[in-house]
Amino acid sequence: MALGAVAEPPVQRRGSDYAQLSRRISQAGLLERRPASYVARIVLTLGAFVAGWVAVFLVGDSWWQVPLAALMAVATTQVAFLGHDAGHRQMFRRRGPSELVGLVAGNLAVGLSYGWWVDKHNRHHANPNHEDEDPDVGAGALVWTPEQALETRGFGRWMAQRQAYFFFPMLFLEGLSLHVASIRAIVGRSDGRYNTPMRHRAVEAVLFVAHTVGYVALLLAVMSPGKALLFAVVHQGLWGLYMGCAFAPNHKGMPMPTADEELDFLRKQVLTSRNVRGSRFVDTALGGLNYQIEHHLFPNMPRSNLRRAQPIVRAYCAEQGVSYAETGLVESYRQALGHLHEVGRPLRG
Fold first, then answer.
1. Angle subtended by helix axes 174-187 and 201-222, to nearest 10
2. How far is Cα 93 from Cα 111, in angstroms, rounded to an integer?
């Protein structure tokens, strides 16, 4: 599969449950691209992002840079959401414009490898919450199943016992983790081959270096080294926290199918996903990811159409007797933390 767009759902036989839902969604016009709307969103989001950096330059060597760093964390996450939409080809049908937006938003503006993210996200969408197939629930700093917990040793085992308490504090390091993973993906090789497939590796490397040099140079040019370091810590820490808080409600604490469970596409996507209720403010704050069920069923659906698709999908799931999970934002975090705590139970005796 070529990189540049997250995998679209497989073609289903005409009478399948997913095919029937897909026809209803298509007849409602919800799969049609909305390029004009996205151009406006891109201009406004990147405009606010650039304006924020102009403000950083104008404020100069002042402690007012600390609240500016917090605002830039919000702006950075909103730009990252653009990269997410571009990777799913929600914006434009043609690959070229989508990849251009993804590379500018990801590598240049945020410092996040677009090619690495697309490869990783492809695998997540293909098998969400599948321990052996979904990279988002593989054992790492956190463990997601009792089996993963029992395999930990040393400090990792101590952490697994208490991971629910450390989840949100650890998110402050998520930004740094994403930068490091991006570098490894761009340059990482083994057996003479790159570990992560990318369509535009050289371009990604150049843009990533430009981001890093520009970021450090701007901060050191306008403020003292101490304030520059504080700005970077606040900015990167809050960006990681925001990103983690946007993605955590989507699947954490939802069923984790195994290889022995044969689920069709509809059930594989719906049963492992959780929606978050809320107003249009929540839609904006979470980048449309609060409609996780609709997004997983129709990953190339424009973000602004997800709200309109929800009642159709929810009603269809009720017809088919498929459980449709939807909760408030705070409750979604409670469920995710509850799952993390339960996973560590075997280690607590």
1. 140
2. 25
Secondary structure (DSSP) of 16-33: SHHHHHHHHHHHTTTTS-
First and final C-alpha spacing in the chain? 45
The pLDDT score that the predictor gives to residue 6 is 52
- The number of beta carbons lying within 10 Å of the beta carbon of residue 168 is 14
Neighbours of 348 (CB within 10 A): 10
| Per-residue model confidence as pLDDT tens digits over 248-263 | 999 999 999 987 888 8
Among 92, 262, 115, 101, which Cα is nearest to 183's? 115
User: What amino acid is encoded at 271 in this protein?
Assistant: L
Q: Check whether 22 has a pLDDT greater than 90.
A: yes
Question: Taking residues 90-103, what's their average pLDDT?
Answer: 93
DSSP per residue, 169-209: HHHTTHHHHHHHHHHHHHH-EETTEESS--S-HHHHHHHHH
d(CA 76, CA 240): 10
CB 43, CB 335: distance < 8 Å? no
The residues, ordered by sequence, that sit 6+ positions from 15 with a Cβ below 8 Å of its Cβ are none
258-267 as b/e, with b when 16 or more CB fall inside 10 Å? eeeeeeebbb
**Are 56 and 228 a contacting pair, CB within 8 Å?**
no
Residue 275, SS3 per DSSP: strand
Q: Do the beta carbons of residue 102 and residue 83 sit within 8 Å?
A: yes
Q: pLDDT for 145-192, tens place per residue?
A: 999 999 999 999 999 999 999 999 999 999 999 999 999 999 999 888
pLDDT digits 0-9 by tens, 224-249: 999 999 999 999 999 999 999 999 99
| Residues forming beta bridges with residue 326, ordered by sequence position | 275
Instruction: Give the whole-angstrom CA distance, residue 295 versus residue 321.
Output: 20
Q: Cβ of 44: how many Cβ atoms within 10 Å? A: 11
